Amino acid sequence: MLTYLNLNNNNLGTNVGIPLANALCKNTMLTSLNLCGYGLRSEGGKALADALCKNTTLTSLNLQCNSLRSEEGKAIADALCNNTMLTSLNLCANELGSEGGKALADALCKNTTLTSLNLCNNKLGSEGGKALANILYKNTTLTFLNLCANVLGSEGGKH
User: Fold this and answer.
1) Which superkingdom heads the taxonomic lineage of this protein's source (predicted)?
2) CATH code for the domain of 102
3) What pLDDT was estimated at residue 156?
4) Does this model's pTM top 0.90?
5) Residue 152 lies in a domain
6) Which single residue of 47, 50, 70, 85 could bond 100 by disulfide (Cβ 3.0 to 4.6 Å)?
7) How does DSSP classify residue 60?
């Protein structure tokens, strides 16, 4: 039974990303999925976010370097509000921007299972940084949060 799938740096793109997301909706065995450098982009990112709402076994997801932008960040944030299994999410080196960061911060106020979130190098800026700083008072499950290389500035760490 397959519990870990590593498709790191295969640049398979949206054409394979959407069917993979559809399969993930039905999968009841996979607990860890590495799609780093997969090339999901917009449609694949949104399809995967939809799958996160339905999947009940995945605990670790690596979406590093997938050209995900604020819209995909918002879709993933919406999924986190409903997902009760995911404990580790790596979104490093995408382009979520301040809007994606704010959406994820809102989701972290509701999500009670995520313990590790890597948002390194996402152009979150000071607004995204402020939103994430504010959730640190409310979220009691997150134990690891990586915000390096996001140009947070002096305002980004204030709540």
Assistant:
1) Eukaryota
2) 3.80.10.10
3) 61
4) yes
5) no
6) 70
7) E
